[in-house]
Every structure is written in C-alpha cells, then in structure tokens.
Amino acid sequence: MHDISAAITTRFRVAATGCIIGLLVVAVAPWLLDTYLTNILIRTLFLATVVMTVDILWGSVGILTFGQSAFFGIGAYACGLIFTHYGFGPGWALAGLALGIGVGAVVAAATGWLAFFHGSLPLYASIITLALPIVLTQVIFSGGNFTGSSSGLSGFPTYYWDLRIWFWTAGTFLVLTTTAAWLLVRSDFGRVMVAIRENEERCAYLGIPVSRIKIMLMIASAVIASAAGFGYAAFSNVVAPELASFQLGTEFLIWTALGGRGTLLGPIFAALGIDTMSSWLSGTMPFLWKLLIGVVFVAVIVLLPRGFAPLVGGLFRRILPVRTAGAPARVLVPDTRSRLGQGADDQKPPLRIEHLSRRYGSLSVLTDVTMTGRASHLLGIIGPNGAGKTTLMRCISDGSERSGGKVEINGAEIGRGAPQDIVALGVGRSFQNTNLFDTLTVADCLLLARYRIDGARLFRSSVGIALPEPALDILRATGLDQRLADETGNLSHGMKRGLELAMVLATEPSVLLLDEPTAGLTRPERMVIGKVLGRLTRDYGLCIVLIEHDLDFVREISDRVVVLHQGSILMEGTVDEVVSSELVRSVYAGHHVEAAQ
C-alpha cells in the first residue's frame, strides 16, 4: 500500500512540477524574446491550446474531428460581435466570454448528438465534424454587416495590454489546461477513454455509456477551444471567417499528427514550432512555405506514423533514463456491497422472450422464438452452425437487433435500448471470440468492468478494485490475480477467456449470456469454468444462457436445453430428453452430411 500511495503522490508531484516549470517559462520568456516573436507566440499559444483538445479527442478517444476550428471561431466571433455591436468593458467581456463558451457548448452537444448515436460509424462522426466548420463559415458569410461577411470584423475596442501581460495570459491558460489534461488521460477515466478508442463495442457491453462520454468530451473540448478563440480575438483585434474554417481544422489535425497523436505534449510543441515557423516562412517564402509543411507532413506520416514525440521521447530516455509516473499497482479486494444474484424479482423470470424474430431483408434468421430463462437455472442453447444461436444472443443484449417480438429482463422490456442500457437492466454477455482491449492491462480491464457500478475518477487513479467473489474466484483459478499489470494482448487464450468472464461478472448481472465460453480451452480449464458456472446458478441464483458445441459439457452443467434449427426452436426439454431425441440426432446428422457435401 505504501508503494501505491507513493506512485499516486509521484504522479501529482510530476504534474505539479511540470506545471510550475511551464509557468516559470511563461513568466520569463517575454523578457527574453523580441517584440515580433512575442507577438507571434501569443497567437500560437492560443492555437496550441486548441490542438491539445484535438489530441484528447483524436489521440485518446479516437474521434477524428475537423470541428475544433468551428468552436475556436465561435469564441472569436463572440468577442468581435459583442465588442463591435454592443459595448466594451469588464462586464461586456465576461458576457462575450460566457456567450462564446455557451454557444460552443450547445453546438458541441448538438454535433455530438448527431455524430455519436448508437450504431454510428467513426467515419460518420468525422463527416459531421467536417461539415460543421463549413456550415459555420457560410453562416458568417451570410451575416452581412453584422458578422463582417468575408472581410470579418476589425478595429473593435479591446484590452490594449502590454505584450507581456497577453503572453502571460495565453501561456498560463495553455499550461493549466494541459496540466489538467495530463492528469485526466492518466486517471481512471483516461483508461475509459483509451478503451473507447480501442474497442467501442466491448465498452458498450460492459455498461459504459460510450455516446454520452464522447458528447461530454466534445463539449469540454469545445469550451476550451471557445475560450481560446475569445482570447485570440481579444488580443489580435481581428476576427475573420478563416478562424472557423475547415482549413484551420485540418491544420490542427496535421499538427497533432506531426507532434505525435496521443502524446499530449507532442502536438502542443508541434503547434508552437510549426505555427511560429510558418509566420516567418510566409514572409521569406510566401509561395513555398505551405508546400514545405505539406511535404514534411507526408514524410512524417510515411516514416514516423506515430509522429515526432515518441521518437524524441525514446532518444531522451536512452540518453537520460528516468522513471516516469505510471499507473499505480492495483490490488483486488472483495466487494462487500455486491448485489450479484440479488437483482432478480422472485415473481418474474429474469429472462422472457416472446415471438422473437430477426430478418436481414428477405432472409429470416430467427422466427417466432419464445423461451423463458429462470433464476438458478442454466439454459443450454445448442444447434448446428447457422441455426441463429449467436443472433439470438445479439437480440437479447441489443434492442436494435431484433425485427419483431419482445424481450424482457427482470420484468422490464428492453425496447430498442442500446447495449449499455440493457446491461443496466442486468444482462452480461461474453463473446464467441475473445473481445478485450489488447493494450490495456488486466487491472485496467477489470476497472472498466466496474464503471457502471463504481464510476471512474476524473483526475486520480483507484488503488483497490472491488470485485464480487465469483469474479475473484476466476482470477485466482486462472492465475490472473498475479498478472494484473500485464497487457491483455500478452495473455494466453485461456487467460483471455477467464478475464472476459471475470469482467462480465464484475458488472453484477442477473442474466448471463455466454457464447461458447470454453472454445479453445483445455479440459482442466473447461472444468474450472464449469465449476464457476455451477456455483453462479446454485449460490448466486443467476440465470445463465449458454451456447456451446461441446455436448458433454452441456450435459454436465445444464438444467434445460433448447435446440435451435434454421432459426426456430426445434425442441426444449431436460438434458436427457434432448440428448436422447432421435429428432435432434437426425438434425445434427443431416447438418453434417450437408456440410460434407
């Protein structure tokens, strides 16, 4: 525990040290720089703050956004419009800043709502954010004298402070927001962000509200970008459509890629260096400097796809090895508040399916499936390949999957709910193929599984991970409790299966959907899984729905068996009734004959 506390303290010490060093550099720099360079850097510091938000969205969460320039422009025009048409002074300045931040937040919320609905593809979000600056620029053009149209607004009253004061203002804003962002990406919530970037689908099936988190991050990034735009306009005394343009949004992405996406500091230094050099090159080589920047960008993408920051960081660590403030070592503890197995209503079956159907155009995959899953029972689903077993799992765990019929979880109809909404009703699901987060550690994955119950700390990392006893049993049986710091990509297949089951149990479901959980496992590993499943039904009262091709395994642990054939229920009964059925044997035999042909 002492080591863990020391690791957390070290992280905040590193953040505080970096912040102090940054503020000292900001305080001293204006005294050492000439007027021209100071003037350029003030603008660049505001732009670098926006680039930092692009790196949060693109580098940490995986949202390729072209829209940060629009929020920057909203903040800039809020300043220009208020100071030009309404008034100038401390009160008006605060009103303009509030207007820019408020409008930016509302536009970001609307953009996120359009871009991140359940089932949307990442490309769709990129298209929405690409259209945003284009639409905003057209609005500015059509504003006539009010917005200045294509000429923008200039000459409005502003604060004509000394350049040093403006430099300190812009630099302090960048340092403080970057420090907060550094703590954020290294916190529990930062692990959630990386998980969304790596495997959005798995996050949803762990109960993590992916769309809501993306919208929240877009709003927060828009607020910072709008504030930066307001400061930029107040200093420069000019606003123009270029500040909200698609071109500027693309430049933000280029600077992020050149600096090193996901490194936070890399894009900031890239923005400072490239924009400062561009200001100088545009005067000495007005027709070539953009071409040079483009050539450098292409070269970096081809030769250094991760940008300059990882390369520079690697060289620095070779020359001067340092111990970085990584995530603290975590410990597993029993969850004394666990309600695993207590969420079901004794008067209502945990799972009820009525007349369920699933069609893909003219192809009917499931037809009129009606079945009930009861507490303390393990329901085996068997059938030949293509019978619709996995499709049935999808229809139970995702409300948008089914074409007709009704699914109830603990008496509540799932409707068209997204997977995270159905997890909240009490459904946990494992996948036919292991579906994890390869670059995250075992401890990170378990922490993600507890998001719906315990949440995630924004600027700190949790020390203990509270898990229900069955999840701890699986971790101990597979040896994962000794490998919490290992990345999941380095685990064996059996360990990955065990981790996925432990993660599902960590969500504390009352209905557990398992799609071939023993596929690829050795016999001892299958025995461990079988004992755990038996205990889950016997001691915790879970309703387990199991898809499995190993009929011996099904016979050992199932209470009832449902046979699916060509999307319909062929037979339902006890294990002995189904296994001894001539009809079931003929179906399997016919399937094998067809497969052989």
UniProtKB/TrEMBL annotation:
The keyword DNA repair does not apply. GO terms for cellular component: plasma membrane. PROSITE patterns: ABC_TRANSPORTER_2. The keyword rRNA-binding does not apply. Its main location: membrane. Residues 351-591 form the ABC transporter domain. It comes from the Bacteria. The chain crosses the membrane at residues 12-33, 39-58, 70-88, 94-116, 123-145, 165-185, 215-240, 252-275, 287-308. InterPro entries: AAA+_ATPase, ABC_AA/LPS_Transport, ABC_transp_permease, ABC_transporter-like_ATP-bd, LivM-like, P-loop_NTPase. It is a multi-pass membrane protein. It holds the Pfam family BPD_transp_2. One of its GO terms (molecular function) is ATP binding. Keywords: ATP-binding, Cell membrane, Membrane, Nucleotide-binding, Transmembrane, Transmembrane helix, Transport. It is found in: Cell membrane. This is Branched-chain amino acid transport system permease protein. It comes from Paracoccus versutus (Thiobacillus versutus).
